[in-house]
Amino acid sequence: MNHKLNLDKLDYQIIQEMMANAEISYADLGKKLFVSGGTIHVRIKKLEEVGIVKGTRLSVDLKALGYDVIAFIGIYLEKSSLYDTVAKDLRKIPEIVRLNYTTGNYSMFAEIVCKDIQQLRYVLHDELQKIKGIERTETFISLDESFARNVVVTGE
To answer: Which InterPro entries does UniProt cross-reference here (predicted)?
Structure first.
């Protein structure tokens, strides 16, 4: 894929630096990578146009805001052909922050963030139960997140 996009070493360096600190100015990033801020701007625009860079996000400590429950839900579908329909319905549940189509025991695996166990219960009992196509679910509550990080990107 990256061969078609013609990404070079500088593109990968920009991506890696911006993943570490999206607040860095183009001028400062240019100085760090020995190119002009204008070059950084042009490269970022190119990466956005081809869909590699998808905006920037603020990294927030959710526990500090009172979101104390992180859980993972393995979802069994009645039929794998229902994936798209079920995924569309799951997208409507704001507490679900990530959804993956998976191999193995589950058809889908979702990450959910809630303020407390009562909110988790509501999502599991009242929201998920309404979705047609879900055969059953299995819930795993996270006791602690040891780390979260981005992958190191290289052009190799």
So the answer is: AsnC-type_HTH_dom, Dimeric_a/b-barrel, Tscrpt_reg_AsnC-like, Tscrpt_reg_AsnC/Lrp_C, WH-like_DNA-bd_sf, WH_DNA-bd_sf
Delimit the CATH 3.30.70.920 region(s) of the chain.
63-141
Domain 63-141 belongs to what topology?
Alpha-Beta Plaits (3.30.70)
Q: Exposed/middle/buried for 17, CB within 10 Å: 0-12, 13-18, 19+?
A: middle
Domain 2-49 bears CATH identifier 3.40.50.300: no
pLDDT (tens digit per residue) in 22-54: 899 999 999 999 999 999 999 999 999 999 999
Kindly calculate the radius of gyration of the chain based on its CA atoms and give it in whole angstroms.
Answer: 20
Q: Residue by residue, what is the 3-state secondary structure of 79-94? A: CHHHHHHHHHHHHCCC
User: Among the residues of 21-99, which ranges form H helices?
Assistant: 26-33, 37-49, 83-91
